[in-house]
Amino acid sequence: MARPAGRGGAAPGAPAGPLSREHRATTLPVLALICLVAFESIAVATAMPVAAADLGAVRSYGLAFSSFLTASLLGTVLAGGWADSRGPRAPMAAGAALFVVGQSVCALAPSFGVLLAGRVLAGLGGGLLVVSIYVVVGSAYPDEVRPRVFGWMSACWVLPGVAGPALAGWMAGAVGWRLVFGVVVPLAVLVAAVILPRVAAAAVAHAPAAGREPAGAGPSARGRAVRGLVVAVGAGALQAGAEGLGDGGVLPLVLTAAGAVAVLVALPALLPAGSLRLVRGLPSVVVVRGLFTAAFFGTETFVPLMLQSERGFSPAQAGLALTGGTIGWFSGTTAQARALDRVPRPLLLAAGGAVLAAAGALLAAVTLTGASGWWVLVAWLLAGCGMGLGMATTSVLTLRLAAPAERGLASSALQLSDNLGCVLGIAAAGGVFAALHTGAGRDQAVFGGLYAGLALVALAAGLVGTRARPPRPAVSCPEPVAGSSTVGGP
Question: What does residue 475 show for φ and ψ, rounded to 5 degrees?
C-alpha cells in the first residue's frame, strides 16, 4: 500500500522541494537572478555589434567579450575564500553592486574605452555573484534537492535564449543599444534587495569562524587574489595574442606564450590539489568542467559565422542554431535531475562528453560534405543535450564532494575552470582560424577541422569524467599492541 503524500505532494520524511514553504523565499530570487544574468549575456552578444559600430570600434569588437571573461575569472577566485570565511552574503552584495555599476557605465559610455571599463566591472561582479549563488545552494538545500535546483537554474536560460536575441535586436534597432545594458539595472537592484536578507542566515551558518579561513583552504585570501589576477591577465594576453597570430609579427607570439606561462604557473594553487594530475574525485570534476566549456563555447563561437559565410544564412537564421542549443541544454539538465542517484554521476559525465563529441563530429561532417546548413540545428541541439548532462552534474558533484566549510573554494575553482575553459577554447579556435582564414565562402575545411578538433576535447571530457568518483578511502593501519614493536613486522 502506497504511503499517503504529505503537504505539497511530498511523502512524509522526504526533503522539502525547491518551491516548498521552507525554500521558496530563497529559490525564487536565485532563479530571478540567474534569469537576469542569462538575459544580459545573450542580449549583449546580440547588441554588441551595433554598439561597437556606433562607438567606432568594430576592429576591437572581441575585447568587449574577453574583458568581461578575464574580469570574471578574478571575481570567481576572490569569491571563494571570501564566501568560506564570511559566508556568501558579502561577496553577493559586492557582486551585485559591481554588476549594476558596470552595466550603468556601459549604458552611458561615451567611448569604447569607457564601455570596456564597464565590462570589466560587470565581469568582476558576475564572477562574485555566480560563486556566491553556488554557496547559497550548497547551504540552503539538502543533497537530494540540489539536482532539481541546478536543473531549474539551467531552465532559467531557456526563455532568455529563445526570446533574448529578438528582444535585444529590437531594442538596439528601435530604441538604441544603450537600453540593452541599462534595462537590467533596476531589475538587478530589485532582485538583490530581495535575496540578500534571505542569505543572511545561511552566511552565519556557513562561515566556520569570523575572520578566519577554513582549514585546508590552501593559499591565503591575498595569495589567491594575486594568483587570480595573474590568471586573468595571462588569459587575456593569451586570447589577445592568439587573435593576432594571423597578422604575423613577434608581439602576438610573445603575448600568447607569456599568457600561457602565466596561467600554468598561477593556476594549480587555485584548483583542488591534484587537478592537473586528474586525481579522482573533486580535482577531476573541476577539470572536466573546463573541458566541457572549451569544447562547447569554442565551437559555438564559430557556428553563426560558418552559417553566414559558408551557407548564406541571415543572422536571424544563424541564431536559430544557438536557440536550439539552449533548448537541448535544458533537456539534458532535466534528464540528469530526473536520474538523481539512479545513474552514477561519473557515468552521466561520460555520457555528456560522448554526446557533445558526437555533435561536434556531426557538425564537422555537415561542414566538410557541403550538406544543408539546417543539419547544424540538429547537431547543436545534440550539443546542448550533452552540455546539460555534463554541466549540471559537475555542479552537483562539486557540492557533494567538497567539505561543507570549503564549498566556496570548491565553487570558485569550478567557476574558474568554467570561465578559463571558455576563454582558452575560444582563444585556441580563434588562433587557428586567424592563421588559416582564406576568405568568405572558402573556409569550409578550416571550419570542419576546428569542429573535429574540439570534438576530441569533448571526448576527453567524457573520459576524464569517469574519474569523478570519490577517492578510495585510505587504508588505516591497526594500532600496535602495547609492548610490541612493528619494526621488521609484516
Answer: -80, 120
Confidence of residue 340 (pLDDT cuts 50, 70, 90): low
Q: Which of 335, 460, 322, 308 is nearest to 379 (CA)?
A: 322
Cell match 549604458: residue? 107
Half-sphere exposure of 113 (CA within 13 A, CB side): 0
- Contacts with 11 (C-beta within 8 Å, 6 or more apart), sequence order: 3, 5
Secondary structure (DSSP) of 228-278: HHHHHHHHHHHHHHHHTGGG-SSHHHHHHHHHHHHHHHHSGGGS-TTGGGT
CA distances from 469 to 84, 236, 340, 345, 351 (A): 24, 33, 15, 8, 15
Residues written for the chain: 490
Per-residue pLDDT of 311-323, as tens digits, reads 877 766 776 777 7
Average pLDDT across the chain, whole number: 78
Long-range contacts of 305-313 (CB under 8 A, 24+ apart): 306/367, 306/376, 306/443, 306/447, 307/373, 307/376, 309/440, 309/441, 309/443, 310/367, 310/373, 310/440, 310/441, 310/443, 310/444, 310/447, 311/373, 313/373
Instruction: Mention every residue, 6+ apart, whose C-beta is less than 8 A from residue 2.
Output: none
With a CB cutoff of 8 Å and minimum separation 6, the contacts of 181 are: 44, 47, 103, 104, 106, 107, 118
**C-alpha cell at position 410:** 570548491
* 39 contacts 95 by C-beta, under 8 angstroms: no
Whether residue 203 has pLDDT greater than 50: no
pLDDT given at position 329? 84
206 Rama class: left (phi>0) / alpha (psi -120 to 50) / beta: alpha
**R_g of the chain computed on alpha carbons:** 23
Residue with cell 555573484: 129
User: Could you read off the pLDDT of 66-87 as tens digits, one per residue?
Assistant: 778 778 878 877 777 777 677 7
- C-beta separation of 157 from 326 below 8 A: yes
* 176-201 per-position pLDDT tens digit: 889 989 988 998 888 888 777 776 54
> How crowded is the C-beta side of 28, counted as CA atoms within 13 Å?
10
Domains of the chain as residue ranges with CATH:
20-209 (1.20.1250.20), 220-270 (no CATH), 274-470 (1.20.1250.20)
pLDDT the model gives residue 214: 44
